[in-house]
Write a structure and sequence with these properties.
The chain is of the alpha/beta class. Helices cover 42% and strands 17% of the residues. The protein has one domain: P-loop containing nucleotide triphosphate hydrolases (Rossmann fold). The chain is globular. The model has no long low-confidence stretch (mean pLDDT 91).
Length: 190
């Protein structure tokens, strides 16, 4: 934090020990990374003692149904960096890894960009159910990913230019309107 404050439960994050702060967060970075091992070991990285049932539940929320089609399922090998799975599969495994551990705060940094629109929609619906009691921050360039968020923050060159719901921003934020109309038809935007 270089200016202002970031508060977690009313406490400035600079007052937390780094390990304590990380215990609050489930993070999926923009560049999803998988480790050499198995599907199960990659998901369990978020919660090492997780049961198979917990792993499958996280995979189901993450829409990683492709794992059930792999001959070895949870024991299916993953190459270093996840080079033997697609970008969308890497993202879904990384999302499952974050979701396996219940957290008060989840951050998804452009974590749905490699997903097709139908998978994105199913994942967001399942995510909403799974994270009902948590704060969820989604960084996205796709309007469809954030459209139903409780609050959208619009940035332009690193500056906040709008805050509100989709409907509010369609009425008040020219930058948001431009983004929406570049991605959606007028009928889809309303």
């Amino acid at each position: 934090v270089t200016g202002g404050q970031v508060l977690v439960d009313g406490v400035d994050v600079r007052e937390f020990a780094q390990e304590d702060l990380w215990s609050y967060l489930g993070l999926v970075p923009q560049k999803s990374f998988l480790f050499s091992g198995t599907v199960g070991s990659n998901v369990r990285f978020g919660l090492p003692d997780a049961s198979d049932e917990q792993v499958w539940e996280a995979l189901d929320v993450a829409q990683a149904d492709f794992v059930r089609d792999m001959p070895e399922e949870l024991d299916a090998p993953i190459d270093q960096g996840g080079t033997n799975v697609s970008g969308g599969q890497r993202q879904r495994l990384s999302i499952a890894r974050a979701l396996i551990r219940p957290c008060p705060i989840y951050i998804f940094d452009d974590s749905f960009s490699a997903l097709d629109y139908a998978t994105d929609a199913r994942l967001r619906a399942a995510l909403a159910r799974r994270t009902r009691a948590a704060t969820v921050i989604i960084v996205a360039q796709r309007v469809s990913t954030i459209r139903h968020a409780d609050q959208i923050v619009v940035l332009d060159r690193g500056r906040v230019v709008g805050v509100g719901t989709h409907e509010e921003l369609m009425d008040t934020c020219e930058t948001y309107q431009e983004i929406v109309f570049s991605q959606l038809t007028a009928a889809e935007a309303s």
